[in-house]
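Extended Data, record Polyamine aminopropyltransferase
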Amino acid sequence: MPLSYNEYYNERTGLTVGVDRLLFSEQSEFQQVEVYETDTWGNLMTIDGMVMLSEKDEFVYHEMLSHVGMFALPDPQKVLVIGGGDGGTAREVLRHDSVRRVDMVEIDETVVRASKEFLPEVGDWKNPKLNVLFEDGIKFVQNIEEPYDVIIIDGSDPVGPAEGLFKKDFIQACYDGLAENGILTAQTESPWVQGYHSSMNRVFTALDAIYEVSKMYLAFIPLYPAGMWSFAYASKGIEPKDGEVIERVKSGMNRFGSHLRYYNEEIHSGCFALPNFVKDII
């Protein structure tokens, strides 16, 4: 067993994490899922050799992917999470009292099983509002009959089973599956990794063409490539920094802000400010 885990995102450049032991390793029908015990970041899950989350910094990704879109609506009740097999995104969505149902569509039950056993604090698995479906999310959105208020795309990098999550047909199907004032959020990779630029540009070009409002926003996650991560916000008309949205954020922080470790009112407003080199990508 090596003493470190290495993920390279550009030739010999990448991430190194000290590892104490391998806790889980399984080749599923779709991908290689592994969980390591690390010397600094708690337990760490990887898929096909790429970091998905660690116990220590997962809150940044899950809070930002969830709350930016959830607060845009005054009363989101029905939410769809595509992917998200570690359970963290659903956990954050379920903090919103208005939510009546969360459908989490994860293609690989191995991810959920490993998360429940080795990352048990990440998911709110016993919540009766959570409905877990082991299906292909790309096919699922093509057959939505009752629209969702919010759709959250919590997929892995644009390779393997997640590749289709970055295509225009899928983005259009999500639009069609949203309610009248529906919101979409998605993870859209690191602006610092040139290999992601084409997929990022493709996603935001499609969002601009399909949705009335389309924005990129940023967060900073230590164990993701280069530490800066991008997300997409898209809606059928609601601007994410409208006064009414900010008031809902303030109200939400009074209700459960003490449980959050990254997201707050200032972050909600500031995360949409993009450096020039990031604007150039999209």
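Summary. The chain has two domains: 4-54, 58-281.
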